[in-house]
Amino acid sequence: MSGVRAPGGEVEGAPDRRTPAERAAELRRLIEYHNERYFVLDAPEIPDADYDALVRELRQVESEHPEVITPDSPTQRVGGAAETQLFAPVRHRIPMMSLDNAFEQSELDAWADRLRRQLPDVDLEVLDFSCEPKVDGVAMSLTYVDGRFVQAATRGDGVTGEDVTANVATIRVVPHELKTPAPHHLEVRGEVYMPTATFAELNKRAELQGSKTFANPRNAGAGSLRQKDPAVTASRPLSFWAYQIGEIDGAVPETKAAGASSKRRQSKGAWPPASQSAALALLGAAGFPVSPDARTVRGVTAAFARCRELEAHRHDLPYEIDGVVVKVDDLSLHERLGATSRAPRWALAFKFPPEDRTTRLLEIMVSIGRTGRATPFAVLEPVFVGGSTVRLATLHNEDQVRLKDVRPGDLVIVHKAGDVIPEVVGPVLGPGAEVDAEGATAADRSPPWTFPTVCPACGSPLTRLPGESDTYCTNIDCPAQRVQRIVHFASRSGMDIEGLGEERVVQLVEAGMVADPADVYLLRAEPLATLERMGAISSKNLVDAIEDSKSRPLSRLLVALGIRHVGPTGARALARDFGTLGALRNAGAVELAAVEGVGEVIADSVAEFFSNPKNVAAVDRLVALGLRTDEPGATGPRAGATAAVGGGPAVAQTLSGKSVVVTGTLEGYSREGAEEAIVSRGGKSPGTVSKKTYAVVVGDSPGVAKTKKAEELGVPVVDGTRFDELLETGELPG
Length: 734
What we know:
This protein is α+β, with helices and mostly antiparallel strands and 734 residues long. It starts with 19 loop residues before the first helix and ends in a 5-residue tail after the last helix.
């Protein structure tokens, strides 16, 4: 099977022999099916991005061939069907409309152009816009009568939803009684969602119990909400963001009197609100949770910049978002702009690049890591997801493959969030979704995949240790382990040797130039230049990078050695406490475990590593080649004054006892380099902001959550351009 299949099952690039009417009919069928899965059953089978692609194609077909449009086409109405037997139907007094989507800057610009045509007397650069994170959850309508919660209903098809009052009543943050006076009848709209931390905990429990995990927080939240027994919903902590006021019936005394001034209406404490920002303020005062990341900005250019800002920091938020909703802030303009048959003209949803897409799983293979661990991975038909084209994705371990029941030939969902390694979430098995271009159906699936019994790299037996989920190659001389050990040694968290990635290491191993990490330091530019894709300049650059790595501190060397359970944090704790490699390697497990932040597991692993003569010989060889073996600024009780082999000058402890958080990119520093600079001067570099934080250094593209937390706690913020000044003096720049 060749080509990349689109959501409908066809092969992209293959000649389409269907007429426009036939393709439109097929697209309508697929969209109706997936609408029911999403809106009615809360069990979507394909990612939002694939659903959006179907809708966009239908719109394009109907635009080019208006004669194929039907009155009941999904493009002519809001969303999915609302027929269900699980919950009682609720008819919305004001329809809950969908939003038009924008996926590219050109579509944002087109929306702005439409606003200019509809509001010729308004300068969009002085107009306020409300920019709100588009939470990936379940749209909800909450009704309050005389300030008391009386009903909750899903959106459904926008006209009729489902009564889920009992379940929503279990959500702790939903107020049962409002804190401020409100209209007699008040409808509040928002999103029920599952926080990412709760989602991770829910899936962790499911894995321990051997039950199926949820694909994403949206599915987990929807599934938790659609429980017949509210106690089940209550056991899965959900949350809620209010983002809009729906219907108001009956004014509160403050605005009931005739002739209330427009100035009073503009007040954020007055009903009805005059702007979206005032509405959010009213909702917050009444007791509703409102996203702290919602922001009102001046001008359409600033609004689009806010979209990009949230896109860059979407993973800093404690909840999942898939875009930003941009709204004209002035509610009086909403009336002028009006709406189409399905969406308001005064708002637009800017959708981020998809992090979930469907594609075909071609083959399941196994890779061998530096410790011998055998990890199954999927070979995929290329798919663009999470900002890059993905061809390979992890399947974690044998149990996960069995639990997900993915098989070669399946259409699968692939997830990739930012820099996270792509993973296969599960198969897509449902009417219409599992039929491929050759007509294969779920009944034609290949047999369940079984884990191999021998190593694909060396043919040695693969062994699964008792009580563990991982499988290992038992051959210590396995060539695959050799490659991965060197790759890890040169990685950014290890010796940080630029230009020595996996592809280059494989080339060097196959050429017989390196067999272990120490061989890396024997490489010379002239022989390297003879290799394919290596010239004189790139060879010299690699040799220079290798030489520079010799000056890395002891903590980096400990990470690079690949000692089991020893990561950057544990390595820094050990290096700062003992000061030198000599002191550390001679310590016993009890002495190692006494180091703050180092438990028995790490201590036993380090002691075992240095008790192995082969490991000691390998380390001695590295030391003889000139690698640094001390930790700058080590002040622990066991550091002593032992001379360091290859040690550099002492670093002034300007940040002793001070906690400095770095967010964003600093010129001249990698993330690890900035942390190292702080720690080497006696400071700490945690990943979160607290009252004990001395300062937050803000570089380019900083995290939204960290900067906001610093403002809330009154923690000093230092511009990234003055980081060196902070390091040198330890004082906050004036």
